[in-house]
């Protein structure tokens, strides 16, 4: 299987961005963690970050036929983007929603996710380790659903 790990706005700043909320791990560290987890589970992965809503949508569209499933940390677009939600609905690929922080324990405006209703499931609150959990969850899902 091939999986796409898509990261949204401001996640390029991980490591220096609010480390008390998001931890000390950089996105580069997270990419390495994902590469190791994917290799251990015998799947290939692409790891992408963009600060631009339309670019994220383009990556979702381009995933059709190239990837079997997606892990999406949409950052703040999670809480605002009907366009991202529609893109996820349109591509017919299983998607795991991911957040480093526990969005349900934070400000009220982070409690609602436009991604959750179109995702297989959501993982949040486990920091960088959540990426490995999301890969396991997605690969497990792909194993039972094709
Ligand atoms: C985040 C949570 C979002 O609310 C926030 O806007 C982010 C990061 C997370 O990984 O915890 O940018 O998606």
TrEMBL record:
Question: Please, which domain of life does this record's source organism belong to?
Answer: Bacteria
Pathway linked to the protein: Metabolic intermediate biosynthesis; chorismate biosynthesis; chorismate from D-erythrose 4-phosphate and phosphoenolpyruvate: step 3/7
Keywords from the UniProt entry:
Amino-acid biosynthesis, Aromatic amino acid biosynthesis, Lyase
Active site as annotated: 22, 99
Catalysed reactions, as listed in the record:
3-dehydroquinate = 3-dehydroshikimate + H2O
Q: Report the Gene3D superfamilies cross-referenced here.
A: Dehydroquinase, class II (3.40.50.9100)
Q: Which PROSITE patterns match?
A: DEHYDROQUINASE_II
So where does substrate get bound? 73, 79, 86, 100-101, 110
- One biological process term in Gene Ontology: amino acid biosynthetic process
Site, Transition state stabilizer: residue positions: 17
Any GO MF annotation of the entry:
3-dehydroquinate dehydratase activity
**What function is annotated for this protein?**
Catalyzes a trans-dehydration via an enolate intermediate.
The entry's family comment says: Belongs to the type-II 3-dehydroquinase family.
Q: How does it assemble?
A: Homododecamer.
Put simply, this protein is called 3-dehydroquinate dehydratase
Q: Which organism is it from?
A: Yoonia vestfoldensis
């Amino acid at each position: 299987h091939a999986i796409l790990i898509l990261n949204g706005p401001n996640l390029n700043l991980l490591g220096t961005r609010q480390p008390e909320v998001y931890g000390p791990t950089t996105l580069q560290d997270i990419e390495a963690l994902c590469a190791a987890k994917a290799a251990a589970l015998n799947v290939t992965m692409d790891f992408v970050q963009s600060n631009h809503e339309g670019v994220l949508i383009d990556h979702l569209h381009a995933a059709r036929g190239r990837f079997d499933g997606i892990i999406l940390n949409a950052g703040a677009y999670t809480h605002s983007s009907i366009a991202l939600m529609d893109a996820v609905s349109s591509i017919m690929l299983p998607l795991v929603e991911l957040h480093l922080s526990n969005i349900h324990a934070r400000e009220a405006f982070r409690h609602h996710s436009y991604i959750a209703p179109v995702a297989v499931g959501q993982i949040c609150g486990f920091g960088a380790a959540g990426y490995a959990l999301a890969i396991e969850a997605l690969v497990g899902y792909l194993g039972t659903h094709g």
